[in-house]
Amino acid sequence: MNIEKKNVNIFLALWIKHDPEIWSELRDIQIRFLLDRIVKEMTFKEMSEKYNVAEGRMRQLFEALLERIDRNVSEEAAYHLRYINKKLDERPDKPFTVVEIYLN
User: Fold this and answer.
1) What's the CA gap between 33 and 47, in Å, rounded?
2) 48 pLDDT band (50/70/90 cuts)?
3) Whole-angstrom Cα distance, residue 83 to residue 5?
4) CA–CA separation, 41 vs 25, rounded Å?
5) Which long-range contacts (CB under 8 A, 24 or more apart) does 57-61 make?
6) 38: which of 45, 60, 97, 103 lies 20 to 30 Å off by Cα?
7) What's the pTM value of the predicted model, to 2 decimals?
8) 3-class state of residue 90 by DSSP
9) Would you call 23 helix, strand, or coil by DSSP?
């Protein structure tokens, strides 16, 4: 089954914006980082320009954010967010146009 990435983005945005565990553990700016990187698929360069910090520092901040999610929210969620982040790094030209789901 194929699901359009825009539908996955809507789901991810709703999850991030409405999950009480995320809101209890993360600050507003961290949630914005998460939305920008994972949902809007912004590069670290774009994010660094938007938030006026060095690109390397933005990478560190995002990795620290994923570590915090890993420790305080969910290891599984952090694992999948890291996977998406890795795919975004490998192909910054929008790596996910369609998401394939295998129903076994």
Assistant:
1) 8
2) very high
3) 15
4) 22
5) 61/33
6) 103
7) 0.79
8) helix
9) helix
